[in-house]
Amino acid sequence: MNWTQIPLGPLQTNAYILQNESKDAIVIDPGGDGQALLNWLKSEKLKPLAILLTHAHFDHIGAVDDVRTEYNCPVYIHKQEQDWLQDPAKNGSSRFLGTNGIRINEADQIINEEKTIKIGTFEFTVFETPGHSPGSVSYYVESEQIVFSGDALFAQSIGRTDLPGGNHQQLLDSIHKKLLELPEETIVACGHGPTTTIGSEMDSNPFLTGF
């Protein structure tokens, strides 16, 4: 399996595209610039099988319907945020984009608990990692030693918790009890900025020391 990081949308949110040898693909957090993303997928001759959302903030969902309409693929979201997709107040787009609020069609698959999701040849372990938002999840691909953490954990930082539903202590608990329990060599594919590793954040993330 190969994966590609593509910053998209007004906040340059990292979308991740995973692909296998058959050119099947999984799209994680397509945050915006829908036509540019579609052009890239077509240029790579990829066929998305599903869209996985780490959470429903506007900068992570902006191109969802572009991809879903083009490829007729299902969208996965945690139950805590399934109604955020249609609500600009909850997904934050009314606050940051004003009258140009983002409304996305309902998700096709609702994540109700931590579990393993199998889509074609792709397999993800879903961890509930709330704190940045109540329905935040992380997707772990053990075979590739990578976790897609959304806005829970960043290189030398953690997600903001001052938005509706955010909770600083809950985020710290999620990081320590879920993400930092992964092998230290695990790559952390963050929602913004560069990738990092679990080991690096354990050693030097200033927000996690002294917890």
UniProtKB/TrEMBL annotation:
Q: CDD domains under this entry?
A: metallo-hydrolase-like_MBL-fold (cd06262)
Which UniProt keywords are listed? Hydrolase, Metal-binding, Zinc
Entry's Pfam families? Lactamase_B
Q: Which Gene3D superfamilies match?
A: Ribonuclease Z/Hydroxyacylglutathione hydrolase-like
Q: Which SMART domains match?
A: Lactamase_B (SM00849)
Cofactor requirements of the protein: Zn(2+)
Q: Where is the Metallo-beta-lactamase domain?
A: 12-192
InterPro entries associated with the record: MBL_Glyoxalase_II, Metallo-B-lactamas, RibonucZ/Hydroxyglut_hydro
The keyword Hydrolase belongs to this UniProt entry's keyword annotation: yes
Task: Please tell me whether the keyword Cell membrane is annotated for this protein.
Answer: no
UniProt GO MF annotations: hydrolase activity; metal ion binding
* Top-rank lineage group of the source organism: Bacteria
Specify the protein name.
Hydroxyacylglutathione hydrolase
- Give the organism the record lists: Halalkalibacter wakoensis JCM 9140
